[in-house]
Amino acid sequence: MKKVALYIFFSTLALVLFAVSLRTGIVQIHTSLWHLLTHHSGTDATTVWQIRFPRAFGAAIIGAGLGIAGAIAQGIFRNPLAEPTLIGLSSGATLGTIAVISSGAAAYGSRTNAEAAILFAVIAALLVQVLAPNKGYGFLLTGIAVSAILTALAGILISMSPKPGIQSLAFWNFGSLALLNNHTLQIIAPFIEVGFISAFFVSRKLDAYSLGETSSHYIGINPKRLRLMAVISMAFLIGASVSAVGSIAFLGLLVPHIVRLLIGPAHRTMLSFSAIIGATLLLLADLLARTLFQPHEIPLGLITSLIGAPALIILLRTKTSQWVAND
User: Fold this and answer.
1) 307 lies in which domain range?
2) In a domain? residue 323
3) Distance between CA atoms of 11 and 247, rounded to whole angstroms?
């Protein structure tokens, strides 16, 4: 009953924030959203459906994807600090995006752009797994080191590229939904959908995997195959998102901790809650990013860091997360 009530509450909150996003901006909307559902011409309709809708819808699906990716990362590596940014996925996706755009091989918002981001994200995550020692925090430290290298390479590509306007790609380091449009959403949505579906297949085995590799092996789970499936799932979610809006910090780290605090560690229900809470938080962060200092817009990654870091500290001091499912 508690889970149902929480799900209804966060779903309703996400819908309210979505509606507020459609009405909020520098340009005032004088027509009701209900009226605009059937009218797609005029200044109000163009503002809502061509500018604000793709931004709000993008925030919802990308936030959901980041929340799920964070839950998968912490589950598959059995570490509360595991997060797509720390294990190289975001930096790899950023490098892939900038590489194809700066070379002229693809334009922003293209299918090739998203595919390159996903491919580089997979390569980065696999590289971290190959290089990392098996003991202690070696995996996370290796992830941080690889991420730093990939971020530096992306910066070098931006600095050296002769292509006009390439320096504007620096926003990928902080994240922004400002460039999202309906065409870009049509490109990334199928990739994120693949990530959603594959993540839920992975989640069915994560509760058993949380008992340890040896125990999970005896009940028929192949740990190496499961990790590979998890990496590919996260790569689709993170790669597609980064190719469109850049790297958004802390969301993938914070959301799973909130979910465990609310409903416990069972991955069968964790992922759906991570999706709805991730969507809610990113919708809220985007609203703050574009309204706090109008007409100036704050980079989205800075807002998520300002919200996420203190919230994570409070959560960690309030209650220690459980890591083994009880049901």
Assistant:
1) 2-318
2) no
3) 25
Question: Containing H/E element for 31?
Answer: none
Q: What are phi and psi of 280, to 5 degrees?
A: -60, -45
Residue 109 lies in a domain: yes
Look at the chain and report how many structural domains it folds into: 1
Contact 124, 246 (CB under 8 A): no
Q: Using one digit for the tens of pLDDT, what is the confidence trace for 14-49?
A: 999 999 998 887 777 777 777 677 766 777 878 888
pTM summary value: 0.88
The pLDDT value recorded for residue 263 is 87
Q: What is the pLDDT of residues 258-293, one digit of tens each?
A: 898 888 877 778 899 999 999 999 999 999 988 888
Task: Classify residue 118: in a domain, yes or no.
Answer: yes
From 68, 30, 73, select the one nearest 48 (Cα to Cα).
30
Q: Is residue 327 part of a domain?
A: no
Q: Residue holding tokens 């059995």?
A: 78
Tell me the CATH number at 294. 1.10.3470.10
| pLDDT for residue 322 is more than 50 | no
DSSP assignment of 197-263 equals HHHHHHHHHHHHHTT-HHHHHHTT--HHHHHHHHHHHHHHHHHHHHHHH----SHHHHHHHHHHHHH
> Nearest-CA neighbor of 325 among 32, 21, 71?
71
The rounded distance, in Å, linking the Cα atoms of 206 and 52 is 37
Helix, strand, or coil (residue 5)? helix
Measured distance CA(2)–CA(13) in Å, rounded: 16
326 pLDDT more than 50: no
Outline where the chain has alpha helix (H): 2-23, 33-36, 43-46, 53-76, 89-102, 111-131, 138-160, 182-209, 213-218, 223-245, 251-263, 267-291, 300-318
Tell me if 69 sits within 8 A of 195, measured CB to CB.
yes
Predicted pLDDT at 131: 83
Give the 3-state secondary structure of residue 195: helix
Kindly report, residue by residue over 92-118, the tens digit of the pLDDT.
998 998 888 888 888 888 899 999 999
